[in-house]
Design goal:
The complex is a heterodimer of chains A (about 700) and B (about 160). Chain A has about 700 residues and is of the alpha+beta class. Chain A contains 27 helices and 22 strands. Chain B has one domain: CheA-289, Domain 4 (OB fold (Dihydrolipoamide Acetyltransferase, E2P)). Chain B has 3 helices and 11 strands. In chain B, strand 1 and strand 2 form a beta hairpin. The radius of gyration of chain B is 17 Å and the shape is globular. Classes of the chains: A alpha+beta (about 700), B mainly beta (about 160).
Chain lengths: ~700, ~160
């Protein structure tokens, strides 16, 4: 089977499963008895195995298979969760990730068998014999409830496990001389209402006899949770051909395979019930085919390339709420986004064209307003499509913290909130590394050793907080620790010794300025270069990466109490609501998100503090920035005229921008100024107005 | 021998001949994406003087530079024949340059192109990579676009 076209899906989904395994195993470590957790782990491991098998990655499959065995025993309660077992499992996850990376790079899983890991897993497995007697009945029940797992889909006599009542019914039937049939039904691929067809098959058969077992279970079939095939064990007086004919009568049935189950075989099964079960499961373990077949839905999903369904099935089992998702290539979304942008530009030019003759065309204006609301809605929905929760990025951090804790020999706990906060997909993809850097920094440089913490009267276990929340048009992500804080003296000395600043400069710097030196390239204060952090490439990379996303990062720190790193990112990148202003005859756009209020100020209200112009507004002193000065252009207004001041905010700080005229609010499409113009820091981009003219967008953050 | 000569002669390059003041310059056509009429240029503050601003070219925002300012000639005077030549460069993306007039397209073969020896002291010369000789004896300076576009202040 050529599976290369499914590689993308495989990689994506494997990553998801690995992530959920990481998370759930962490949970398991905290709460070893939680049945839901164990089930979730089992499901994820099982899907992983099935997927690796389907794609032909034997080594990966072998490893997941052994992991699954362990999980299965945990689920059955025959192995207790222990620390070293969790460690082993994490190592396995790392190994799987390695496989995945190799696959991603070369399309092949590589040659590492990870034999030591498999041996470790087997040791864990063997430990169960010492732990407790294998309670047979419990296991039997468990396996039968999971019968779909061990039942082959193939059209042949299957090893099915019957429970007591079913055994009884079968026994009775055989005594009465009835026939036991094993029927495999295949619905046509084109069939739309599979459940309905299946129901008709059931109905047809029930007229002739009794259905004992169906795989998948009746409930699943009714909910259409099956692929094209389902199997039935059926008791009837009627001869085989009549039964087959009855099924075939139902339309849209592709194929019916039926065989008589031999009485001897059934009898054997009853006697050797448990052995058969074990046989069945061991067969599944050893046989690739069985693994493939035991996840029919998954295979089908791979075959059709639709991903939503598998996810659906997975969530249906775990949560009642189903997320219907479709994977879309981000480039397609970009195209869609660009089209929406063009539509908005076209709308804007219509608006400006209508401005001329307002009198005769109320209908025209109405239509334009309608168009406006449609484009706004369209834009919003496209935007939302591009938004993903940051969950996918931050989910790997608890595991990372655990590893860091062991590696650094520090006790720490990571508290996260706001994982559901949504950001543009492109931003989310990029934000992982900077966040990881900050967390590692917090763990390595921030938190003290347990001994030191104790002496300082802090709790031995250090806390790192990762909080994400939306703030206006921004998303804020905070990384906070209760560690030592930043020693500004040390930072200053370091900066001087590294030649970043001179000693004189150092004397005159404020604490905040010194702290900001940390973002300077080539700065690392850790005395010992560890493999966790301290290579001196961390923070400046963090800063440049976040600035590349039009975001900003700042740090606040208190010696001995801890540090807070705040990342502020724009919610949307492409289209914003802006206020258009006129400065000296030129048009500029100011993002509405950063505007606090707009004031009319008379020149007499201007005071000067330290040679800087400020205004006193409702109890707050706000510095004035004359845009005409910043933009090197002559203002159209005389010194005596009242001034229009746009009050903008950056974090908690305010500033008043003096403009000549307000031109109104407009939805603008942000265009880059290109790679060539890099010198202008106060302009964050450009936009095209309705009349085709280019207006520049002011980066108010750069004005502070 | 005859064939070899043909092969050599076929190695031709097309240049767009533009006028800047009294002089004629040639721009290798493979870098030219578009030629547009002079239009409103939106000034960008706080940038190098030769960067005149940005224009809207079918929904794309494109920076426009004055080759005259860059070469220390007098400031452009926009006339009816002023054009913006949109260059497509690998590194810098699309850039527009303002020229006084676009005259014609010429095809020069390698024998008609004479490399110039650099006098490293004279900065202006460095924008020119070679001299092209017309059939009728006219000369055009072939612009070294990378040098024209290169931003020394940023390095």
């Amino acid at each position: 089977m050529d599976v290369s076209q499914y590689l993308e899906i495989f990689l994506d989904e494997t990553k998801e499963h690995l992530q959920s395994l990481n998370t759930e195993i962490l949970n398991l470590e905290q709460d070893p008895e939680n049945v839901d957790t164990i089930n979730e782990i089992f499901r994820a491991a099982h899907s992983l195995k099935g997927m690796a098998g389907t794609m032909g990655y034997k080594r990966m499959q072998a490893l997941t298979h052994d992991m699954e065995n362990v999980f299965s025993e945990v689920r059955n309660g025959t192995i207790k969760v222990k620390g070293n077992m969790i460690d082993t499992l994490f190592k396995c996850l790392d190994a799987l990730e390695e496989y995945l990376n190799t696959i991603q790079e070369s399309g092949d899983e590589g040659t590492n068998d990870n034999a030591p890991l498999i041996k470790l897993l087997n040791e864990v497995l063997e430990s169960k014999e010492n732990d407790s007697e294998n309670p047979g009945s419990e296991k039997a029940q468990d396996v039968s409830s999971d019968s779909a797992n061990i039942t082959k889909q193939c059209v042949q006599v299957r090893d099915i496990v019957f429970d007591d009542t079913q055994k009884h019914v079968l026994n009775e039937a055989i005594k009465q001389g009835k026939n036991v049939y094993d029927i495999a039904v295949r619905v046509q691929e084109t069939c739309i209402l599979k459940a309905a067809r299946a129901f008709l098959v059931f109905k047809a058969l029930e007229e002739l006899g009794e259905i004992i077992i169906s795989t998948p279970p009746v409930q699943d079939i009714e909910d259409e949770r099956f692929d094209l095939d389902f199997n039935l064990i059926f008791i009837s007086d009627s001869p085989l051909n009549k039964v087959v004919a009855a099924v075939k009568n139902v339309s849209e049935i592709d194929d019916v395979q039926a065989s008589v189950v031999e009485k001897e075989k059934l009898a054997y099964k009853f006697e050797e019930g448990r052995e058969t079960e074990l046989l069945a499961s061991s067969e599944q373990n050893g046989n690739m085919e069985a693994t493939l077949a035991d996840k029919p839905v998954y295979v089908a999903q791979n075959a059709t390339g639709g991903t939503g369904k598998a996810a659906e099935k997975k969530t249906q089992v775990s949560k009642p709420v189903v997320n219907r998702t479709v994977r879309v290539d981000i480039e397609k979304l970009d195209v869609l986004m660009n089209l929406v942008s063009e539509l908005i530009i076209a709308k804007n030019s219509l608006v400006s064209a209508s401005g001329g003759d307002r009198g005769n065309s109320s209908g025209f204006n109405e239509q334009i307003e309608y168009l406006e609301s449609v484009t706004t809605n369209l834009h919003e929905s496209v935007m939302k499509v591009r938004m993903v929760p940051i969950e996918s990025v931050v989910n790997k951090f608890p595991r990372m913290t655990r590893d860091l804790s062991k590696k650094l020999n520090k006790k720490m706990e990571l508290y996260m909130s706001g994982e559901e906060t949504e950001l543009d997909r492109t931003v989310v993809d990029e934000i992982g590394d900077p966040l990881m850097h900050l967390l590692r920094n917090a763990a390595d440089h921030g938190l003290e050793l347990a001994q030191v913490r104790k002496e300082k009267g802090k709790p031995e276990v250090g806390s790192i907080f990762l909080d994400a929340y939306q703030d206006g048009n921004n998303v804020v992500i905070e990384v906070r620790d209760d560690g030592a804080g930043i020693n500004t003296e040390e930072v200053k000395n370091k900066a001087v010794s590294k030649g970043i600043i001179t000693a004189d400069q150092g004397e005159n710097m404020s604490e905040q300025e010194i702290v900001n030196l940390l973002f300077h390239a080539g700065f690392s204060t850790s005395e010992v270069v560890s493999d966790v952090s301290g290579r001196g490439v961390g923070l400046d990379v963090v800063k440049s990466k976040i600035e590349a996303l039009s975001g900003e990062v700042e740090v606040k720190s208190k010696l001995g109490v801890g540090s807070t790193w705040t990342i502020r990112l724009p919610l949307t990148l492409a289209i914003i609501q802006a206020l258009m202003v006129d400065v000296g005859g030129e048009k500029y756009a100011i993002s509405l998100g950063s505007i606090q209020t707009i004031e009319d100020i008379s020149p007499s209200e201007i005071k000067t503090v330290q040679n800087k112009e400020v205004i006193h507004l409702r109890g707050i002193v706000i510095p004035l920035i004359r845009l005409s000065g910043v933009l090197d252009i002559a203002s159209k207004k005389g010194p005596e005229d009242n001034m229009t001041v746009v009050i903008v905010k950056k974090g908690s700080r305010l500033a008043g921008l003096v403009v000549d005229e307000l031109m109104g609010q407009q939805e603008i499409v942000i265009k880059s100024l290109g790679r060539y113009i890099t010198k202008c820091k106060i302009i964050s981009g450009a936009t095209i107005l309705g009349d085709g003219e280019v207006a520049l967008i002011l980066d108010t953050n750069a004005l502070f | 021998m005859e064939e070899l000569k043909v092969g050599l002669e076929n190695e031709t390059t097309q240049f767009i001949v533009v006028r800047l003041g009294e002089e004629q310059y040639g721009i290798n056509i493979k870098y030219v994406d578009n030629i547009v009429r002079m239009q409103h240029i939106t000034r960008v503050p706080k940038v190098q003087e030769y960067l005149r601003g940005v224009i809207n070219l079918r929904g794309e925002v494109i920076p426009v530079m004055s080759i005259r300012v860059k070469m220390d000639l007098e400031l452009d005077e926009y006339t009816k024949s002023t054009r913006i030549i949109i260059l497509k460069l690998e590194q810098q993306g699309n850039i527009g340059i303002i020229v006084d007039e676009v005259k014609e397209v010429v095809t020069l073969d390698s024998s008609q192109i004479e490399k110039v020896a650099y006098d490293s002291k004279e900065e202006k010369e460095n924008f020119i990579s070679a001299i092209g000789k017309y059939e009728d004896g006219g000369l055009i300076s072939l612009l070294d676009l990378n040098a024209v576009v290169l931003d020394k202040e940023n390095i």
